[in-house]
Every structure is written in structure tokens, then in C-alpha cells.
Specification:
Blueprint lengths: L9 H16 L2 H4 L26 E2 L7 E8 L3 E3 L2 E5 L2 E9 L5 E6 L1 H13 L10 E4 L4 E8 L3 E6 L11 E7 L1
Length: 177
């Protein structure tokens, strides 16, 4: 029990306890840097951060979307379609549909990047992350991802949930001038 000799300091202590208590009661995923709860859609139109240029492009702005591509995911560990053609500097809105009964994700990257991330997911299967080139979709749900392909080449997408990638849940994106 805390005893106060000077009651004038009581409001400051109450305010401090309220702020500290709010931080303790805040869900862990809200406190973690870059953390996300799987199933959340990413809408990269936030002005709070500058998009990071990747080898396979950069987060797009919803106002710049040139077309929408629907990607279906299912428990047969396949994407439909699994081959996508994109023009250089196109901003694509991916509508990612999970038609299965388990969590699936779509992650865009280079083959090397996806391989590395898949290995990390095996070691940390409950790893939480939120990047604009990832969509984690709960069973029966959909998620959106907006990406600008400002680099030509062949890139890949995959579900990196342990076992899914190895079962062949992968696709390719060909970006041409």
C-alpha cells in the first residue's frame, strides 16, 4: 500500500499509473515493432512511413492501382493463377482469397528471399510480421496487397507457412518493360 504525505502529488501518481497500466494492458502485437496478427490485410497508403524499395518493387498506393488480380489459395497447396504477367511500373492490387480451411499467405520476393524466409518460418512458425508484400489470410477470408513493380525481371510468390512452400504452394511474376 502506498501512503502519501502530500496529497497534492496524488493526481500525478494516478496519471502515471493510468499511462503505465494502459501500456501493460495493450495487446503484445500492438506493442511489437512490425508485428501483426495473421489474417490482417495490409493497406500501404500510410503516410507515417516511407515505402522500402525491394529488388522486386515497392509498396504501392491505392490511388495508383492499374488493375486488380485475384489470387485463390486452397488446401491443395496451390495458387490460382500461379503465373502472372505484369508490365514495368504497374501497380497491382492483389485480392487474395483463402478458399481453404487453414491459414495461408501470399508473400512476394526473389527466390532467394523466399527460401530464406521459409527457413526462418520453420524455426519460428508463430512469427508475426507485417510487410506490404505479404498477405496473411484466415480460412474463408480475403486480404488485399498493393504492390508497384518498378523493377523488371522474374519474381516469385509463395505461402511460407511451414509445409506449404515445400508442398509446392508457389508462383511466378514476370515483369516486362
Amino acid at each position: 500500500m502506498i501512503k502519501f504525505k502530500n496529497l497534492q502529488s496524488l493526481p500525478a501518481v494516478v496519471a502515471l499509473l493510468a499511462v503505465g497500466g494502459a501500456a501493460v494492458l495493450t495487446p503484445t502485437h500492438a506493442q511489437a515493432h512490425g508485428a501483426m496478427h495473421h489474417g490482417k490485410s495490409h493497406h500501404p497508403s500510410s503516410s507515417l512511413s516511407t515505402p522500402e524499395q525491394k529488388e522486386w518493387g515497392i509498396a504501392g498506393d491505392v490511388k495508383s492501382v492499374t488493375r486488380t488480380i485475384t489470387i485463390q489459395m486452397s488446401d491443395d497447396m496451390r495458387f490460382r493463377p500461379d503465373k502472372i504477367a505484369v508490365k514495368l511500373n504497374e501497380t497491382i492490387q492483389f485480392r487474395v482469397l483463402n478458399q481453404g480451411k487453414v491459414l495461408h499467405e501470399m508473400v512476394i520476393g526473389t527466390q532467394a528471399e523466399l527460401n530464406q524466409h521459409a527457413e526462418m518460418m520453420k524455426k519460428h512458425p508463430n512469427m508475426e510480421h507485417d510487410e506490404p508484400y505479404m498477405a496473411h489470410v484466415s480460412p474463408g477470408q480475403s486480404g488485399d496487397m498493393i504492390w508497384m513493380f518498378n523493377r523488371p525481371g522474374q519474381f516469385h510468390f509463395a505461402c511460407l507457412i511451414p509445409g506449404h512452400y515445400e508442398a509446392g504452394m508457389q508462383g511466378t511474376i514476370e515483369v516486362t518493360p
